[in-house]
């Protein structure tokens, strides 16, 4: 979960810097790609852990 939160914070910071600083639009794109990759990562992790729990 720490990795997930760290990547979300990094994606937000890169997005803000890329959107505000002139000429650094590529940082905005990197932030968006990182955010989407992070969402895919957490989705896959939750699906995998949901199958491991025994039904009681």
Automatic annotation (TrEMBL):
The keyword Transmembrane helix applies. The keyword Membrane applies. The chain crosses the membrane at residues 25-44. Keywords: Membrane, Transmembrane, Transmembrane helix. This is DUF2207 domain-containing protein. The lineage of its organism: Bacteria, Bacillati, Actinomycetota, Actinomycetes, Kitasatosporales.
